[in-house]
Design a protein that fits this description.
The chain is α/β, with parallel strands linked by helices. The protein contains three helices and six strands. The protein has a six-stranded mixed sheet. Helix 1 crosses helix 3. The radius of gyration is 16 Å and the shape is elongated. The protein binds zinc ion.
């Protein structure tokens, strides 16, 4: 099997409700995602998919929804959440809401779902998606 992987990165804030220690505080990361695709066969130029297609489609979605904003859980009871949401909305950077705590695992699964939708018409399948929350820690979704 031949795969291709495109790395994309963004800056965002989150917090993990009910976390046992410092991740319960609002804090930011330089997130990095490695998006791995396969195709039934290489295209007529020898590629799974052009890296630029992943960058253009998925990178644009990330820039729009996740870069320089907050990724927070719907219903997060922290009193700061609504103020952050209102402020980011006013700055044109609405908060992105997740259904469960926005861990690297949840963010990886969400980006895998989105990337598959955005790349569907290219015929590729997203088979693995790794999200690095720090240089030393990542979560991986795989098909
Ligand atoms: Zn964190």
């Amino acid at each position: 099997m031949i795969t291709c992987t495109r790395r994309l990165a963004w800056d965002a804030m989150h917090r993990i409700p009910r976390h046992e220690s410092k991740c319960a505080a609002f804090h930011g990361h330089r997130y990095t995602a490695d998006i791995t695709c396969v195709a039934d066969q290489l295209d007529d130029r020898g590629r799974v998919v052009d890296f630029g297609v992943i960058k253009e489609r998925v990178g644009t979605w990330i820039d729009t929804h996740w870069d320089h904003t907050a990724i927070l859980m719907e219903g997060d009871p922290d009193p700061g959440v609504q103020a952050i949401a209102a402020s980011n909305e006013a700055h044109g950077r609405p908060v992105y809401w997740t259904a469960s705590p926005p861990t690297a695992e949840v963010i990886a699964a969400e980006l895998a779902r989105v990337a598959q939708e955005l790349l569907a018409d290219t015929g590729v399948t997203v088979v693995r998606l790794r999200v690095w929350e720090t240089p030393n820690g990542w979560a991986e979704w795989s098909r």
